[in-house]
Specification:
The complex is a heterodimer of chains A (247) and B (191).
Chain A (H helix, E strand, L loop, with lengths): L21 H9 L14 H9 L6 H20 L2 H17 L10 H20 L1 H7 L20 H5 L1 H13 L3 H12 L4 H8 L3 H23 L5 H13 L1
Chain B lengths: L3 H12 L5 H13 L1 H19 L7 H17 L7 H22 L1 E11 L13 H10 L4 E5 L2 E6 L2 H6 L4 E9 L2 E9 L1
Parallel strand pairs in B: 3-5
Antiparallel strand pairs in B: 1-2, 1-4, 2-3, 4-5
Classes of the chains: A mainly alpha (247), B alpha+beta (191).
C-alpha cells in the first residue's frame, strides 16, 4: 500500500499487536464492566484497543464502526471531495491499525485517530491539490472583526430552507472558512468535542482553539445571515411587490 | 463597564457558559440596552445550534458499507470466540469428526488456475485506486491469509507465503492439496 502520510514510518516493519496469553486475555476481559467480550460494543475505546493489542484483531472492526462517521465528517470537511475522503478514511483506519502498537494511551484513542485523519487529509491536499493547500492552509492574520449583518433572524431559520437545504448551506459556509478555523469548528460545534479535546487533537493551545472557534462562529454567522434574516416588509408586502412587478 | 467590543471578544465563551458569573451579569446588562449586540449574540447562538443539529458531511451509506467490508474480513472468521467453553468443546469435537471425515473424502492433489488475492477481500478488493497487489499485501499484513480466486470460488492458501507474495494480484497456476475451501500449496507459477 502506498504510504501517503507524514506519519508513515518508512523502512520500519509494520507494528503487529502482541500475541496474548490466555491469562492476559482473561485480564483484558475482567477490566470490562459489561458482558462477554464479544458484546463489547458499549465498551470504551481504550479497552477495545487493549484487546486488539492482546491479539483479538477482529475487535478493531468495532473501533472502525464507532469512529467512521466522525473521521469521514472531518476529512470531508477538509477535502470537500467524497472520493478523496473515502480513500483517506480507509487509509486512516489502516494506518491506525498498523501503528496501534505506538498508541501510548496518553491521549484518548479518538483524539489520536482524528489526528491521523487530519494529517492524512492534509497530506492528500499537499500531494494532489497543492494549489488549494497553499491558499487554504494560510492562517488568516489577526484582524479586528466587525460584524456587518445585524438584522435579526427568523425565529426558526431552518424552516425557511428545510433541513436538507440548510445542511447544504452549512456545508458551503464551513467550506468557506479558512482551514484552521474550519478544523476547530468541525471538532467543537459539528462533533461537539470539548474545547480541550479539540485543542489536544489539533495540537494547539486551548486559548488558540478558543480564538479560532470564536472567529469561525462569527464568520459562519455572517455567511448565513442573508439567508435567514427577517424580511424587511413581511410576506404580504413581498407578495404585492411581486404582483406589481409582473403586471 | 462592558462595551460592544468586549461582547464581541467574549461572545464565544459567553455562549459556551465559560465566563465568570460577574462577567456574565455585566454582559447581560449590556445586552438589555444594546439591540445590535443582542442580535449578534442571538444569531451566533442560533448558528451554533444549527451547526450542532445538522447532518453536514454525513458519511454516505455505500462508503460506510465498503469501509466495514474492508475491515470485517478477519472478524467473520473468528466469530463465536466467547461461547461458553463446554459448548465450544462439544461443538469442536463434533466439528472435528465432520471435518476429519470430510477431509478424508475431499482432500486430493489438484492444479487450479486463478488470481492471488486475500481472504479479506476475496474476488473484489475493497480499496479503490490502489492495485490488487497492493491491497492483497496490505490485507495479509493485517492478518488475512493469501487466497486463490478461481472459477468464482475463493480458496484460502496455506504455505509458500514468500512465493505467493511475489504473485499477489497476478494470475497463477497453483498445485496443492485441496481440502474444502483450503489449499495446502505445493507449487505456484505464473498463469
Amino acid at each position: 500500500l502506498r504510504e501517503r502520510s507524514n506519519l508513515s514510518v518508512e523502512g520500519q516493519l509494520p507494528v503487529k499487536p502482541a500475541t496474548a496469553t490466555a491469562k492476559e486475555r482473561q485480564q483484558g476481559r475482567r477490566n470490562l464492566s459489561f458482558g462477554p467480550a464479544r458484546d463489547v460494543v458499549a465498551g470504551d475505546d481504550e479497552t477495545l484497543v487493549r484487546l486488539v493489542r492482546l491479539g483479538e484483531k477482529e475487535r478493531f472492526t468495532e473501533l472502525v464502526q464507532r469512529h467512521q462517521r466522525i473521521v469521514f465528517r472531518i476529512v470531508q470537511g477538509i477535502l470537500n471531495s467524497p472520493a478523496d475522503s473515502e480513500e483517506v478514511l480507509q487509509e486512516c483506519f489502516l494506518k491506525a491499525y498498523a501503528h496501534l502498537g505506538e498508541f501510548r494511551g496518553e491521549a484518548k484513542f479518538r483524539t489520536w485517530l482524528i489526528r491521523i485523519a487530519i494529517n492524512e487529509a492534509k497530506m492528500r491536499l499537499r500531494k494532489h491539490r497543492p494549489d488549494l493547500d497553499s491558499i487554504d492552509g494560510n492562517e488568516p492574520e489577526e484582524e479586528r472583526f466587525v460584524p456587518r449583518e445585524l438584522r435579526d433572524w427568523d425565529p426558526t431559520p431552518e424552516e425557511r430552507l428545510g433541513s436538507l437545504e440548510t445542511s447544504r448551506l452549512l456545508e458551503r459556509a464551513i467550506q468557506a472558512l479558512p482551514r484552521g478555523y474550519r478544523e476547530v469548528l468541525l471538532l467543537r460545534d459539528v462533533q461537539q468535542l470539548s474545547t480541550e479535546e479539540a485543542a489536544a487533537t489539533l495540537e494547539i493551545s486551548v486559548s488558540a482553539a478558543k480564538t479560532r472557534l470564536r472567529r469561525a462562529r462569527l464568520m459562519m454567522r455572517e455567511y448565513l445571515a442573508p439567508h435567514f434574516q427577517k424580511r424587511r416588509h413581511g410576506r404580504l408586502f413581498d407578495w404585492f411587490a411581486g404582483r406589481r412587478r409582473t403586471s | 463597564m462592558i462595551r460592544c467590543e468586549d461582547v464581541l471578544r467574549e461572545i464565544s465563551d459567553y455562549l459556551d457558559r465559560e465566563v465568570s458569573a460577574e462577567l456574565r451579569r455585566q454582559i447581560e446588562e449590556h445586552l438589555n440596552g444594546c439591540e445590535n449586540c443582542r442580535v449578534l449574540v442571538n444569531t451566533t447562538r442560533k448558528t451554533i445550534s444549527l451547526v450542532g443539529a445538522s447532518t453536514v458531511f454525513e458519511i454516505p451509506a455505500d462508503v460506510s458499507e465498503r469501509l466495514m467490508k474492508r475491515f470485517s474480513g478477519q472478524a467473520a472468521s473468528r466469530a463465536g470466540r466467547s461461547t461458553p467453553i463446554r459448548l465450544t468443546l462439544l461443538a469442536g469435537l463434533a466439528a472435528m469428526l465432520v471435518v476429519t471425515s470430510s477431509i478424508l473424502y475431499l482432500q486430493r492433489e489438484r492444479t487450479l488456475e486463478g488470481t492471488i488475492s486475500d481472504t479479506s477481500c476475496g474476488a473484489e478488493h475493497g480499496m479503490r485506486n490502489i492495485s490488487a497487489a497492493e491491497c492483497t499485501l496490505k490485507c495479509v499484513e493485517m492478518g488475512a491469509k493469501y487466497a486463490l480466486v478461481s472459477g468464482g470460488e475463493v480458496y484460502e492458501l496455506d504455505g509458500m507465503t514468500d512465493e505467493l507474495k511475489a504473485f499477489a494480484g497476478q494470475k497463477v497456476r497453483l498445485s496443492g492439496d485441496v481440502s474444502g475451501k483450503t489449499i495446502r500449496v505445493d507449487s505456484v507459477s505464473a498463469g
